[in-house]
Write a structure and sequence with these properties.
The complex is a heterotrimer of chains A (310), B (332) and C (268). Chain B is built from nine helices and 18 strands. By secondary structure, chain B is α+β, with helices and mostly antiparallel strands. Chain C is globular. Classes of the chains: A mainly alpha (310), B alpha+beta (332), C mainly alpha (268).
Amino acid sequence: MTAILPAKSVADRLTTLFWRKPKLLLILLITPPLLWLGVVYLGSLAALLMQSFYSIDEFSGMVIPEFTLKTYAELLRPQNYDVIFRTLLMSAAVTLGCAILGFPIAYYAARFARGRWKAVFYLGIMLPLWSSYLVKVYAWKLILAKEGIITWAAEATHTSGILNAILSLPGIGGGSLSTSYIGMFLVFVYVWLPYMILPMQASLERVPTSMLEASADLGATRAQTFRTVILPLALPGVIAGSIFTFSLTMGDYIIPQIVGNSANFIGMAVYQLQGTAGNIPLAAAFAVIPILIMLVYLWIAKRMGAFDAL
Amino acid sequence: MSIAVEFRAVSRHFGPASAPVRAVDAVDLTIAEGAFFAMLGPSGSGKTTCLRLISGFESPTAGEICIFGENVSNTPPHLRNVNTVFQDYALFPHMNVRDNVAYGLMVKGMPRSQRYAKAEEMLALVHLDAYGSRKPAQLSGGQRQRVALARALVNEPRVLLLDEPLGALDLKLREAMQDELKSLQQRLGITFVFVTHDQHEALSMADSLAVFNEGKIAQIGTPAEIYNHPKSRFVADFVGSSNVLPPALTKQLGGPEKWASLRPESLRLDATGPLRGTVTAIRYLGAGHRITLTTHGTDIAAILPAGHPLPETGSTIALGFDATALHIMDQA
Amino acid sequence: MHSDRASWALRLAAIGGLLFLHLPILLIFLYAFTTEERTYAFPPPGLTTEWFAAAWNRPDIWEALSLSLKVATVATALAMVLGTLVSAAMARATFFGRDQISLLIILPIALPGVITGMSLRSAFGIMDIPFSTLTIILGHATFCIVIVYNNAVARFRRLSGGVLEASADLGANAFQTFWHILLPNLGTALLAGGMLAFALSFDEVIVTTFTAGQQATLPIWMLEELIRPRQRPVTNVVALIVFAATFLPILLAYYLTRNGSETAGSGK
């Protein structure tokens, strides 16, 4: 037998070619997905950016394909400015709500859940993350309705007074939960909560038990260990989660449409401007805002080390 | 006897051409057919890269590699008639032991009954006849290693490459496998080339070896040659626990002003001996004692057989040796 | 040791949080059987299965369902091919522009859906591409690639490079190695990625509204019912169907990968 076996088939020859030129295989592998993402996705983003520099003829409603900053100037009108401000405020509130509500779940799942309970928590967080977004929103429409389960529960426990007091709060109250900012906030927190829990849990799981023991060993009380060791180490996870909750709230247009007092949000503005109003340039300009905000947000998050928790 | 593997000025450089990392640097090497050849060196010395150059997972930046006289520099791994036992064994986790062993025969198109018969034969050779249906995850480290061995040997390679084959095994198992590998190689007559950083393993198993340092071969020869006549300080230092004497000390002991090596076991207590110094440590070795002596700022180790009266730590003693034991090295 | 047990307050908050995540969905099940037609009254005045029959006889639901299935199937198939290719390239090699490519893969789900949707809408507008099933698939496949990629790349990394080299060493050519070694080891991860991509596509509504034109996928049909309700109990039944159609693939994906170090679905 010789030291070199003969190349018998086309497959053998191709393998030899890939071995001699490893870059060739890499290029063959990566070209189709890169073409797709490059053309379909980046191309579309470029189109969006281009459209945002066009303007619309106010009489004919036709898009004028000429470069102008007029559309961006329109964003600064008070009613548009309000939309942006309201969206950011809601995004921040939802992020905070998710962090507070999610922390105990993430902390328990990461530190105390073992065996079967670990699986329960894992599935318990993952299933709502993936299950139908629209169905979840719909479920809340049922819950928050004036004739729905919350009103019923309040009556059954004789706490309708408290519910009405909450609903009569100025600014965030409303006729019923489903037509108030409180209701909208609740739904937002509900649908994005798993996105906050998972990175938080991941970063908490990376805190070694020995470090907590060391802290206790050095005389820290449980509360001190929590405040000085666990919280700072969980922070990158919270920031990573906040990227999702903030970004998703900012771009959502379904929830403000279904729950709430029909106040406008960025996502809704984009949807309505491109649809019924037919003002695609202004819709595009509106859509650029979340991109810019998220770029700044990601830059800050990266500096704070949040990407290690993803 | 013909030459199994030959390196002609082979280099393998990594990184940019302007500042390359010379993993293997202009190495010339011949390995005789039927040899049990060891490549010994510290990590990063280029020994594993040399092995991968033979198997084809690395291509030479310069030079030629020949296997049985044929230049394989342009042949991909799957067409080279050599096989490898990988360091972590690299068994296929989704296949049972029998299918693992028969894999090489399957991809060559051998019918199932025939290749299974061969696989069973090979499993018997490595004493794993009863394990054909197990998955690799159900085996111990030593058993996995035997499967890896059987999987490579079933292809009847002309050269078998072994990458730190015993590194993952515990001491007792390692010694048993050393004997087994050696007898297997003698029975099959296949050329074995194995990489190790363990000098005892290299010295006890190989019939010739190359010591690697920084991408070059520091010395090549039989275990006895390398152990007794190291060419350089590096080899003397790395192979065994030889005393390395600086030129000034060599001269004092009656040699030329050159680096020299002196084996610890060639030293003996001798009141008139030329090596005079303070005892700094004594260690019990079972078959004897190892004492450390400091003289002119150099630590010298000596192994004294059991039964001798021992000096005390801190005392001043003298050691003597036969003139032939002092080995003068050509290179620094 | 003091840190072994959680306090009652923490346990209560954690379990309360889990219930908060799950109870609302259970409510959908109840409402699918209510006899109340015009409001969301709780508790339901009575229970009936007639809405399942009503939904069964609605051709618009069947149309939407079949469009959703078609879109999800084609988009998943495309995403599996593209996602596997890119993960194969990214798992091993280091090359110039690697970080940029990984950012590009993640971008379609990192940015809010409204941006992906609006971008595609702008591009179709500029290029005069009419809305069709194809434009929906185009959008879905784009954000499904990353789902398949995430699942496959983790498995690629875990699969020690040694086994691929061992295969070549034993005489297998690249295609034999792919077929006998790579595919069996990658299989469940790919399948899990496909399941999740299918669930995501089947359920997607935000990007779809921008790329669908007059066609309605099942989520779009539901959205329209939510904004302008016609027959509320029928919508409840459809919600139940949509939930089941996404829930089952997710559960399957979990069971396919739960023994690995990387479990499917830990990132969306």
